[in-house]
């Protein structure tokens, strides 16, 4: 080296052991000059390869680019000026050393390369080059040394040696600094790049290298999110590489390749096999045997390989970053050891310390940057995986055969998409741990071994032993979770029923009994929660004590093995920081392995689904056909699956173009199968099928999309208003549109939930007609509609004079009346065509068809004889049915036509709100309440809603909510928890301070004294910390459970006391949501996030305390760092919370669209809309990823900023230790720096915990809101309860009584005055909405009086408790509501009556025979809503309830449509005999039941119109007379 340089290469006296270090000229001219060049040349091949593949158009030559190039050329000139100067010296016989030729040559060529690279990048469209930024940075870094050195030598000597080289070096230094500064600016976007139409492109693409490295480009969104909640329109478009289109295309390509490969292999096997069998030479058969066996082992196409080929390369970049980060993680413990060594060595020059501090900081910053680049790559891979898998599954689901579709339900396929794709996403984030964890463990052990020798093994043994302990706890926790889910489900089911039948509970005064049942389940649920809380506190004890126990055993073993082993600061704290590194991979490894196991199961399921058979697109010939025909089938057989027997055999069929062909036959003879066969949906076993022209298909079960009605009809065709109106007219949809709230813009719910069956069928038909195809396959479209509508549709659409005349139509039908008008009839029987021909021909043949006619003609005639109702009225009838089936106890206003339309309108509003209509019950009442019919509305106002939209919370959470939660937990407990946390951290600090004190113990002739005491105190402090952790987390869990119990109890209590009007205006779903989702959050999400928050908060706090205690100067830096931290945290929390919300909102449409598609595949294929449906699906996935991607980046953005704050803490802790070197001992420095090294993690998690807490604490607010709604009157009033036998006579008196449903609505009863004597039987009649049911509701005080009063036996009912009143009256309500539970519970929830009494009641209500025939008798389980009893039986159960209660006043609200005459007779008879001496008020719909009553009350519009005996009323020819006349009784 000396010959090469002409001086020494390294001189440690000059460079290390001095207060003013310098490097030798030789070192400067070789190593420092060459480092940048070596870097650039080694990076070059990879970079060129990358540029070759990434072309984004070229960038126009800009001023920036010109300057960069100019400086580059100048640099080259300057370097080579040096070279020529050396030659000049040669000529002058001063021979310079070889280094003066070599270095300028190398540097010059490198500068030339850099200049060319600047231009090449410009042509490839690179806006900001990372490679060159690093190169210029390295050049500047390497030139700083020589720069300082040159100045120093000049200053020392007082004059300049080698003036020329001195000058060129300064010019060189100035130029590279210019280059570095210029390269940090980014160029304009490339020219000719594909024109971006995005309104809001992602700034990542155009951001510079440094901006990408630190995720600075995300800051704009973070600030926006802080200013106001982010909305959809603020989200950036996806990058091209992340869109479904790009990803799925690539994945499909790889998957197809993979399938093709496997197929090739199979084919090869077949070929070989056949050859051998043919050439029976020698041992032919054996050989064939072998090959056939081989075929079994043939591999299936592996989806994993396709995934690896698609995403592997991108993912590996992330793995590379992870590798660098892992290696960097072990540099800081080494630097810490150097720092402690420096503090020990009193003579060391100060700059060593500053260098170490700077290196620690640089290393930490690099580690942060690498880690987050790795995470970015991993998470983006995960996101792409989900997109790819979802897209591939969606595309596959559109082409699988029907038999394959049957093997997996829609739910299962949707699960593949949601759950299994999600698993991949979760796994990818941690997949690198699979190799990284073992690597980290190995390295950590290696360094520990070097520090402490074999004693390390003791510590490792403890770590390994803790793994199964944690695993066991996890297993047990999972078991508890399952049990708790069971309780939770049963509680929600019960709540659902209670809310559905809340009115009945109120009428019977049964609330306490049901409230008890719910609280019983809740008690069990909380019991399980408590058990899992014990477990959790154990596991957090293990988790927090683990590092400590490990350190304790290691140090104890180390010190006891040999007394020459001295525990000094260096060993203790370096090994502590290494143990901290070990903690993470050891805990992650088992998790990753379990993730991998789960994902491999998912992979198998996805692979199996993707390997299903696909429909053969060529089974139906579409090009060639015999002239004049539209459809021809020759000798064809079809089955639903290759392995199933054929469902259609030997079909021969020719359909001329433009013919109308009817297909008839008995149920299950293969009519629908024939349709599917023509569409190519079935497996063609043999024969030929040809269909010429476009096809429209109307399936038997109409398939309706969740879109507007108009979109359902247009189905992707171009809109044409005239044509559209004609189609609506023809399909009889005009009248329906008038009833729907938004006309044809009405949003139709999923599966067409807010249309009647007939409407759905007509929409499906309208879609076909609008498509204007050549061939129409109509699968029984007329069965779902009424006969007169069917006739209309046949005449206007299908028949010889309909809209479709001249098209080829195949109509499956049962309607015989249409058959004479068709051209051909095909009769199917048992999957064969039994006969064909025109109507007349077939009648003459007198075979199967004639018999079919005879069978069907009977009911057909009856149907035809009905008077045809006017079109306009059909819908009104529909409304009537919808109403009357579920008519409720309230018909307080005349429901005119208008109100009826109003009702339907609300119905669809309710369903479009997410189908939260409470069991379709009480719908009618809502109509009436919504608005009195006198003021008909302007017709279309889609926004008019009965149900107020639920508000979504945005913005920050108020502190009051936290206070409410603290009150629920109990302020004392809160205080105790905080106190315990302080103790826990005090103990931890104590243990570490003790350790640092121990390490400073003086060494006396090679040993330390009283080690036993040292170990003992250390152990005691550490275990105390563990113990306090145990107590803390347990107290916190108990507090959480206490809060959960009290919040739920308050909510339940309030809901049972809430007046009925609340339930009429709030969808059940919304109340249930409070009981399920929000209670779940309070039970299981809030306590752990509080635990995490407090843990990280106190850890960070104790770090600060330790550092300030050891180096008080640190206090100066804390304030600015805290401010930065606080701002980053606020920005992040606001933005990420909103992004999470947007992400979850945009996720469900993907799955609902998917399940919709799966159920409608045949329609989608028939209309040839597969492509556009794929596009819709892709768009929905992209919408979701648009909010998911910023969510990922927001975490990276946060991580880098928070970790930077952490790295600054490390820097200052080390710096101040160096500054205060003389007053510090090594133990304290070790303590403060090792604390600082850990702080980054807890700072990072603290932000996440805050964010989680803020997101979830909202649940408390929502529950509070529903626990404080207004309540009805008290159930019992002290000192006001009526006598025991009240009402003894049963007299009822209304005094000037008026009532209304809710504030702000009109009166429904207006000034009623009437008196009923004890024992009278009163019938109450009146038109719909006259206020009949309202009267009964007023007796029970479901409606409170507006003015006036009701007296029963002289007691004013408004003055007694509600339960005192309600339990003394009996009602048999209109719709019988049963609850799931035993029959006995349904009759007597309070267990008041003996078994004999119950059997007696059952006997009287004619149920005895049914009940005694059941094996479980009174314990017979009723299912939800009493589904396993007939409607009549349910009505009789209600009668039995009434018989059991047997009070002096019975109110009978007669059922309208639901009940058969037989049951009705039984009930009437029982009432006449059993309630002879009671007062009976009957709301009658059929007058014949009340003709023998004492008196009849006729209500009209809420007032008493007539009140007298039936005979007198008929004689007086009033309203009652006209009603009786209508009923044929007068």
Structural key phrases:
1530 residues; alpha/beta; 6-stranded mixed β-sheet; 51 helices; 21 strands
Describe this structure in words.
The protein is an alpha/beta fold and 1530 residues long. Helices cover 63% and strands 8% of the residues. The chain is built from 51 helices and 21 strands. The strands form five sheets. It has a six-stranded mixed β-sheet, with helices on both faces. The chain has a six-stranded mixed β-sheet with strand order 15-18-19-12-20-21.
Condensed summary:
The chain is α/β, with parallel strands linked by helices.
Q: What share of residues is helical?
A: 55-70%
End-to-end Cα distance:
131 Å
Multimeric status of the protein? single chain
Report the biggest beta sheet as strand number plus sense, adding barrel if it closes. 6 strands, mixed
- How many alpha or pi helices? 51
Low-confidence spans: pLDDT under 50, at least 5 residues? 274-296, 858-949
Strand order across the largest sheet:
5-6-7-3-8-9
Averaged pLDDT, please?
82
| Broad shape | globular
Work out the strand percent. Answer: 5-15%
Radius of gyration: 43 Å
Write down how many β-strands occur, each being a DSSP E stretch of 2 or more residues: 21
What structural category characterises the helix and strand content?
alpha/beta
